[in-house]
Amino acid sequence: MKILVADDISQFGIEKLQNLPDSQVRVRTGMSEAELMEEIADTEALLVRSQTKVTAAVLEAAKHLKVIGRAGVGVDNIDVPAATRRGIVVINAPDGNTISAAEHTFAMLITLSRHIPQADRSIREGRWDRKSFVGVELRGKTLAVLGTGRIGTEVAKRAKVFGMTVMGYDPYLTEARAKELGIIHATFDEAIEAADFITVHTPLTKETRHLLNAQAFARMKDGVRIINCARGGIIDEEALAEALQAGKVAGAAIDVFEQEPIPADHPLIALKNVVLTPHLGASTVEAQENVAIDVAEQVGYLLQGLPFKNAVNLPSLSGEQKAILQPYLALGEQLGLLAGQWVGGAVSEVEIGFAGPIAEHDISYVTRTVLKGWFSVKYGDDANYVNAPFLAEQTGITVREVKQPRGKVFTNLLTLTVKSDQGEHRVAGTLYNGFGPRIVEIDGYTVDAAPQGNMLMTRHVDKPGMIGKIGSLLGDAGVNIAAMQVGRRETGGEAVMVLSVDKAIPEAVLTEISKMDGIVLARAIDL
Ligand SMILES: NC(=O)c1ccc[n+]([C@@H]2O[C@H](COP(=O)([O-])OP(=O)(O)OC[C@H]3O[C@@H](n4cnc5c(N)ncnc54)[C@H](O)[C@@H]3O)[C@@H](O)[C@H]2O)c1
Ligand SMILES: O=C(O)CC[C@@H](O)C(=O)O
């Protein structure tokens, strides 16, 4: 297993990677895009912090890459959509640097209120100036926290201890949660208009880019102070520089920038009422150990085929959800794999049905496993849970999920209906208590077959001699039949047969079966 560490990551994380079975860990930091493209060609796992840019071109060169581990929260240095298209899992370490980032924000808040760096500088320049650095107390002031996730919440808790009134704005903040935190649940306008200090703690997204811009600054109180320890770009830096120059904003403390490292002629550098740090929010011994260990652990689990968490391009399931859904994930993949081998022609639509109590759960992961099974028939290992929805989109297949609260015959039933230019096919499966997954329906015919190993599936005219002749052909080829299921609606009509066989059916034998009089469809299935 080739693992490349491209940024400065704590030795604790690197050791975890080195201790993985068969791992070869290379540490090479500070690479240009071209160097990274060369270095990554044979790599299965890449670990980065925020410095390395994992672009679409880098990913194009990464022919064997399975996972990108980000030792930290923000994944904006990684082209996640491009990784998803290529089936590469992106894992981050969301919790390990929360406290450090919150403490850095708080350090910035205090620094801003008491001019500490400016006063320090004046002493070093030989002055004893006590007049220029009169500060303001935090007690009794209002702090607007924009984004009350992990870090925003920790900042709010600390501000409360300092006697501040905290207003929180976040689309996911509920009234109850605000009450629990002792903060005011505010709209964006209410928060920015009332605040003496404003701190942003959102990710950088389309919605949050330039969240604080010239219009927002105009609505703020005169003398407001601004902090950004989240992501460069959430604040419009040009507009901030103008508001600082105009005296509208009394001070700003900024850790993160639209362009990092910031250019020497950046407008904020020349301003006295600004405190700048070079993206240090997560730079503590503790945070770096935490995130490196967390991400190395999850990347290690993934590489070993074990359950992992914190994938940003896969839906997350709680432990409880996982326990309930696990058998359906396996069944879904088997149904997809079976249908992928059974159905021919150009497919335009796939409908995945969930009937029974299972429909009440988040079944989007099951849908992914069905699609992964389906696409792995065509794309082999290049199809996975990460890129399966993208492959559907790319191949023009409409995917629909249909839920019914109650199953008619089975407590829980999973169905897969596929429409192609050759007609419609439907397979269905369920879980029998103690017997595991079963295929219970093929194209409207009831069967009861274990979905495993090599199988022969046929649709044929229900007439004497069919089954015997197929059995003889298989027998002559040395293929033993382990189990047989036949489903039919009426005598002499059409029937479906599912044979479990002990080895793969030779191509020539399958061709001969397909040509038999009365055979409508015959397929060798490998699950
Ligand atoms: N400076 C650093 O070194 C450093 C360290 C750690 C994290 N960070 C950054 O801090 C930010 C917050 O990290 P976190 O761990 O608290 O993330 P989080 O996901 O726990 O919280 C982000 C919050 O922002 C909210 N949000 C999203 N869009 C919003 C919008 N349009 N308006 C208001 N709220 C919105 C979300 O609902 C969420 O509650 C991220 O950008 C992360 O990359 C920076
Ligand atoms: O790697 C770093 O030090 C920055 C991390 C931080 O920006 C994050 O989003 O977790």
TrEMBL record:
Domain ACT, by residue range, is: 455-527
Q: In which pathway does it act?
A: Amino-acid biosynthesis; L-serine biosynthesis; L-serine from 3-phospho-D-glycerate: step 1/3
**Highest rank taxon of the organism:** Bacteria
Catalyses which reaction?
(2R)-3-phosphoglycerate + NAD(+) = 3-phosphooxypyruvate + NADH + H(+); (R)-2-hydroxyglutarate + NAD(+) = 2-oxoglutarate + NADH + H(+)
Q: Name one GO molecular function term.
A: phosphoglycerate dehydrogenase activity
One protein family per Pfam:
PGDH_inter
Under Gene3D superfamilies, the record lists: 3.30.70.260, D-3-phosphoglycerate dehydrogenase, domain 3 (3.30.1330.90), NAD(P)-binding Rossmann-like Domain (3.40.50.720)
UniProt-listed Enzyme Commission number(s):
1.1.1.95
Family the entry assigns: Belongs to the D-isomer specific 2-hydroxyacid dehydrogenase family.
What does this gene product do? Answer: Catalyzes the reversible oxidation of 3-phospho-D-glycerate to 3-phosphonooxypyruvate, the first step of the phosphorylated L-serine biosynthesis pathway. Also catalyzes the reversible oxidation of 2-hydroxyglutarate to 2-oxoglutarate.
Question: What's the protein called, per UniProt?
Answer: D-3-phosphoglycerate dehydrogenase
